[in-house]
TrEMBL record:
It catalyses: 3',5'-cyclic CMP + H2O = CMP + H(+); 3',5'-cyclic UMP + H2O = UMP + H(+). It comes from the Bacteria. CDD domains: yflN-like_MBL-fold. It comes from Brevibacillus brevis (strain 47 / JCM 6285 / NBRC 100599). InterPro entries: Metallo-B-lactamas, NDM-1-like, RibonucZ/Hydroxyglut_hydro. Residues 19-224 form the Metallo-beta-lactamase domain. PANTHER family: METALLO-BETA-LACTAMASE DOMAIN-CONTAINING, METALLO-BETA-LACTAMASE SUPERFAMILY PROTEIN. Gene3D superfamilies: Ribonuclease Z/Hydroxyacylglutathione hydrolase-like. This is Metallo-beta-lactamase domain-containing protein. Counteracts the endogenous Pycsar antiviral defense system. Phosphodiesterase that enables metal-dependent hydrolysis of host cyclic nucleotide Pycsar defense signals such as cCMP and cUMP.
Amino acid sequence: MNQIHFLAISFMYNGSAQVITPVLLQDEHELILVDCGYPDFLPLLQEAAHKQQLTLDDLTKVIVTHHDMDHIGSLAALKRTYPHLEIIAYESEAPYIAGQKTSLRLEQAQATLDHLASGEKQHAEEFIRFLRSIEPCAVDRTVTNHERLPLCGGIEIIHTPGHMPGHISLYLIASKTLIAGDAVVIENGRLEIANPSYTLDMQEAIRSVRRLLDYDIEQLICYHGGSFQGDVKKALRELLQAYDPTQEVLNG
């Protein structure tokens, strides 16, 4: 029994309606959450799990794709509420999640502060205060590129840098499902690179999309956009060619 449960969570952020899609992976022995939303999202996660006839009391692990605020915001609260949880992240992400290194998103925001107009600066300062408020959480287990976890039919770790240097996506071997994190997003039914202004290295992000073509993907799940409807390989190739029309995409 290997099941994938979508936890589509709707909320308001900065005056606009948004949706994120954390995922629960389930087998006979494990209930694994992939990413966990903004701070104070624990009740929303619990409610979304309940709608799937599941309870977070049964959670065994949390896999973090990267240390952005909407992916780790409720991680410390989860660990506090369910102390038996094993927190898993990519090896280079662990110090940021644990608060041992300054968030790269915070460094990015601070670096742009002096170049902003006064009105924009106030918003940026509020964002910086918010980033500083994210509660750190120790990582229990680190993983590496192409490592295979013997969970839920097999989970391969795919290092997909660009959005952040330590970003990972997950390939579920049994169901040929890719959990993309923020490696790609769905906008108006199309695959896109996650918000370019938040992508720390666009060329790396494009190379990461190209890497995904090495996998036989029947289902693609994006944190922003949910489940992609359509031919995944074709959509990935179209995305790559939109960024570099001169290069032929051979994979897939």
